[in-house]
Amino acid sequence: MSLLEIDNLSVGYGGQTAVDGVSFAIGAGESVGLVGESGSGKSQTALAVLGLLPATAEVRGSVRFAGEEILGATESALDALRATRIAMVFQDPMQALNPYRSIGSQLGRILAHHGLAAGSAARERVIAMLERVGLPDAQRQYRAYPHELSGGMRQRVMIASALLCEPELLIADEPTTALDVTVQAQILDLLEVLRQDTALLLITHDLGVIAGRCERMVVLDKGRVVEQGATRDVFEAPAHEHTRALLEAARGDRDISLEPPAPETCLDVSGARVEYTVAGRQRLSAVRGVDMDVRAGENVAIVGESGSGKSSFARGLLGLVPLREGRVRFRGAELPRDLDDRPRGQRAALQLVFQDAAASLNPQMRVADLVAEPLGIHRKNLDGDARRARVAAMLEKVGLGIEHLDRYPHELSGGQAQRVAIARALMLEPDVLVCDEAVAALDGTVRERILELLRRQQREGGFTIIFITHDLTVAREISHRVIVMYLGETVEQAATDDLFASPAHPYTKALLRAAPAPDPANPGGKTSVSGETPSPLQPPSGCAFHPRCPHARERCRDEAPQLREVGRSLVRCHFAEEL
Ligand code: SF4
Questions:
Q1: Ligand 1, atom 3: nearest CA belongs to which residue?
Q2: Closest Cα to residue 182, out of 549, 514, 518?
Q3: pLDDT confidence bin for 254, thresholds 50/70/90
Q4: Domain of 353: which CATH number?
Q5: How far is C-alpha 279 from the geometric centre of its chain's CA atoms?
Q6: 547 alpha carbon to ligand 1 midpoint, in Å?
Q7: Same domain, 9 and 142
Q8: What distance in angstroms lies between residue 178's CA and the mean position of ligand 1's atoms?
Q9: Which of 71, 80, 191, 529 is the right S-S partner for 510, CB 3.0 to 4.6 Å?
Q10: Is residue 87 scored above 90 in pLDDT?
Q11: What is the CA radius of gyration of the chain?
């Protein structure tokens, strides 16, 4: 008998099916990955296992844990199961933790509620668990409140609370999706080490996460299981078309063809510095003197984790936040620092596509008007017919049909909304398209289609793309050159092929090692740096990376390295040649 047996599970809401006849099992101590894109039914399946589906859910089938039926079980029976025998780690620990209670009090109450320990025994057990999940200074963190911890630390607390009662099954629902890639690797390592005999159901949209961590995998699409088997077998010979599409998207398109850039410089940024005032007085330096020289038709990816300053740099470049210091030249002419002071032609030449397309589109406008709007502002001489013709041609280019013309943003999928945002930005035939995490919120297969759309449009339009991303796979697919940022500075700049073949800076190496790869034989996702990016309010002395760098020496703490040529790259590290 398996530990967990899900048999023909269906979940629906008002006639809409979310889970459709799902069956799979997990043996004691086994690790199983549940993979699918958004809306595939993964989280609904997990909630059914925990007996957490809302009362409005129409549920059929069977979910048995150690032989006992969970569907329809009484609240007291479920309460006895949850935490002690089945525990869950959610994507967003802030939602799962009570903001008004200290960490110690929350974890202690779990033990007391289940009658496992109380008083000083509970305190000792909680502190021991906080130490095991790698929380530095566990005694102090025991008294801390959730908001005082970083995202990675909060996820460690979630894991501590899930494992506190030594459950037989741990369900982790996208436990690292909200985390930076270097922290993700730490958290996944931690889960692997600590779970020991606990079975694991790891729910994720990221096949790379599954590749290195799960013995078996189950692939969901539109609420149905389309394939399941040993992880290695599924990766080597995916039987279902949807699994193949997921794998192709995760591996990225290696056959990309980017036109070589022109020799002349299009955009030249020097000494860019962006600062914000925090709490009315403290000065936060988000970007600390970044240079960038981009040729016409060249794609530059700016890569970094949260706090790297990559988005602030893009905003400074576009004039959305004025640069504190430094200058931006476009085709040789210096651009005013503030967008409002830039002439219309210069504003039209630099366009931006945001991560959250749906939120950046006016919800009260139809697609046709949204795409036509930039023409109304910048090309007033066009008459109605010419404008309509341009809108229709552009929508076709971005792969939207005339049936979308009358839709409102909320009637579009994430991918369609992003196509509308790209259409709007391309309407004015810009010279530079700045994409700020433009595909980060999209599922893998949709992301690939949007990247292909951008490459195709670029071949036709010859514009330059500045692509801001935290995702190295994306950077590799879209860029000629990569700039890696850490804590407001460029730490490495190199041609894309060179950067991936021979990264020189320890941080770039850590990013590459930490990125999960969809290959069970070589799964990536390795931890090579500890901790998280420090606050830009208090950047470390010397080399900003030194508190996390495995190669840091005395000199690194005292002396800030300069960005300098090392081979064909620019690298900010004292010891790049010997590492
Ligand atoms: Fe690491 Fe020192 Fe190089 Fe900084 S300068 S990256 S701390 S070796």
A1: 573
A2: 514
A3: low
A4: 3.40.50.300
A5: 28
A6: 9
A7: no
A8: 27
A9: 529
A10: yes
A11: 25
